[in-house]
Amino acid sequence: MLSLIRIRNYAVIDELELEFGSGLSVLTGETGAGKSILVDALGLALGDRADANTVRKGKERAEICVTFDCPDSHPALAWLGEHELDEEQACMIRRTISAEGRSRAFINNQPVTLQDLRNLGASLVEIHGQHAHQSLLQKANQRRILDFHGKHQPLLESVRQLFESWQKLKAELDDSRRGIESREEQLELLRNQEKTLLTLSLEDGEVNQLQKEHGRVANIENLATGINQSLEKLYEGEIGSAHALITNSQHILQPLAELDPELKENFALLNSVEIDIREIATGLSRYRDQLDMDPQRLEWIEARIAKIRELARRYKVEEVQLETLLTTVTERIQEIEQADASLTNLENSVGSAADLYRKAAEELSKARKKSAASLEKNVSSQLKDLGLPHGQFCAALTQKTNEYVDANGLDQVEFQVSLNPGQPLGPLDQMASGGELSRISLALEVVGTGERTVTTMVFDEVDAGIGGSVAEIVGRRLEKIGVNRQVLCVTHLAQVASQGQHHYRVSKLTDGKTSITKVRLLAGKERLEELSRMLGGIEITDRTRAHAAEMMARSSK
Asked: How much is the average pLDDT of 126-154?
C-alpha cells in the first residue's frame, strides 16, 4: 500500500509530506484548494507525462517521492527483483521535473525510464479519475476483469498452455516448409555426389595402398637395378660378396674354436651373421622376382589417383576422407528423405494442437458468456444504487478472426454502458464522464471483479453529480472496498467523507502574492468541523454540527 508521499515545489504545493494507512482515506477541502493536485502528483510519480508549468514559480525543479509497503506475494516485488531494483520489501519511487521541462525518474534510488515507472505503477495503484490512469478503458483489462469475476483462471491457463504448444509446433512446421526448396536442391546435389562416389567405388585403405604401389611401379627400374647391385655385394657375387667373405671366415675360425673354447662364442656369432645374410638375400630375391615392368598398370594407377584428387578437391575433403564420404552422403540423403516424410506428421501434429486449443478456447468462451450475463446484472444493479438510475452495463463478447486468436482465447471483450434513457449501449470511453467512470469502477469493485494484485485504489470525482442517500451509498461502497484494499478518495460530499477511517483536509493559504497548499490529518472536533463545513452553508449552525456528528456515529457503527 501507499505509505508515504512527499511533494516539493509542485504547482501550489511548496512542501508537503503525508503518511497514509490502510482502509479508506478521504481528502476534502474547498474547491480549488488542490485536492486533485495530490492525485496528479501521484500520477506523475507513476509515469504520467511531465509539464514544466507544474514546477512552482521561482523554483528550479519539482520533486515527488512516494513509498509503498508491499507484502511478500506482491507482483511489484517480483518486478523489482527481475530488474535488480529490489531493496527488501520497500518500493520508493522518485520523480523530478526541472523548470526547463527535463524529467528524471528513480526507483529505490536507481535511475529508470518512464516506461519502467508505468510498468511498476500498474501493479501498485489503480487511479480512477478525470486525469488519471484509467486502465478500465483498456480492453485487455476488461477481459481480465470478466475472467476474474467468472473464476476462469484454471481454464484460461489451460488455453494459454495449449496455445503455446500449438504455436511452437506451427513455428517448427513453418521452418520445415521454408526449408523444402533448399532441401530439394541439396538432395539433388547429394544424389549426384552419391552416384559419382558409387562409380568410383573406393575401398577402405585404397588411397594409401595406391600411393604405395605408385611409388613402387613408377620407380621399378631404379628398384630393380639397386636390388641386383645389393644382391651382388651381399650374396650372389662369387668373389668379394659379404656371404663369400663370411663363409671363408667360418672355415678359418671353426678349427681354431675347437682348439680354444673361448673362440666358440665368436664362431657362433659368425654363423648367425651368415644365416641373416642368407635370409636377407632370399627376401631381396623374392622382391626382385615380384617386380613387374607393366606400363599399363602404372597408367591405371596414375589415372585413379588423379580421379581421387579431383573428387577430393571438388568435395573439399582430404583424399583419404573420400573412403568414408559415401557413407556420410548416403546417411544425409536418408535424413532429408525422412525429414520430408516427417513433414506430414508435423502437419498432423499442428492440426491436432490447433483442435485441442480451439476446443478449450470454445469452452472458455461459453464460460465467459455465462459470467458476462452475471456481471451485467450485478453491475447494472450497483449503478442504480450509485446514482445512475438508468445505467445499463454490458460485457460484450465478439469472436476474433482466426489470424487474431491468441493465448487469451477466441473472445474480444468490451465493456459498454448506457447511462441515459433511450441512449444506446456504447464503449466506456465514449459514454462515461470521469465521475461516471469512477462510479462504474466502484460498481465493478463492489461486485468483486477487480485485479486483486493492485492493493491501492484512488478515486477522484467519484461523487460528481450525486448527493443525499446516493452519496452515502457511494461512501459505504468505498468503505467496503477498503476492508481488503487501501482506498484514497477525493470528495466534496460529507456523506462520503464520513465513511473514511482517515480524513485529510486540503487547504490553500495565500498572502496576496503567492499561494500554498497544506494538508492536515483531522480527528475529533477538527473532523467534525470539516464535515459540518461540507454540510452547511455560509454559517455553520449547531444543527449542522449535530448532523455531522450523527454521520460520524453512524459511520463508526
From this structure: 81
- Distance separating alpha carbons of residues 126 and 467, to the nearest angstrom: 25
380-426: pLDDT as tens digits: 998 988 888 899 999 999 999 988 999 999 999 999 999 999 899 99
The amino acid occupying position 100 is E
Distance CA 214, CA 299 (A): 10
Query: What does 285-308 look like in DSSP terms, one character per residue?
Result: HHHHHH----HHHHHHHHHHHHHH
Q: What whole-number distance in Å separates Cα of residue 193 and Cα of residue 189?
A: 6
What stretches of 20-142 adopt beta strand conformation (E)?
Answer: 24-28, 61-69, 90-98, 103-107, 110-112, 125-128
Which tens digit of pLDDT belongs to each residue from 184-239? 778 888 999 999 999 888 888 888 888 887 877 777 778 878 888 888 888 887 77
Taking CA atoms, 149 is separated from 317, 442, 445, 479, in Å, by 68, 14, 10, 21
Look at residue 340 in the predicted model and tell me its pLDDT: 67
Question: Reading across the β-sheet that carries 24-28, which strands appear in turn?
Answer: 125-128, 456-460, 486-490, 24-28, 502-510, 515-522
3-state helix, strand, coil in the chain (%, to 5): 60, 20, 25
Distance CA 333, CA 340 (A): 11
Q: Residue 50: its pLDDT value, please?
A: 85
What does the CA dihedral 535, 537, 540, 543 come to, rounded to 10 degrees? -60
Q: State the Cα angle at 45 between 24 and 139, rounded to 5°.
A: 75
Query: Which residues have C-beta within 8 Å of that of residue 332, sequence separation ≥ 6?
Result: 190
Crossing angle between the packed helical segments 153-178 and 322-385, to the nearest 10 degrees: 150
Please, is 150 exposed, middle or buried when counting C-beta atoms within 10 Å of its C-beta (0-12, 13-18, 19+)? Answer: buried
C-alpha cell at 236: 650372389
> Cβ distance 31 to 534 under 8 Å?
no
More confident residue, 34 or 427: 427
Q: Decide: 504 and 30 in contact? Cβ < 8 Å.
A: no
Report the relative pairing of strands 61-69 and 2-10 from DSSP bridges: antiparallel
Cα 468 off chain centre by: 51
Q: Which pTM was predicted?
A: 0.62
Helical pair 206-217 and 220-231, crossing angle rounded to 10 deg = 70
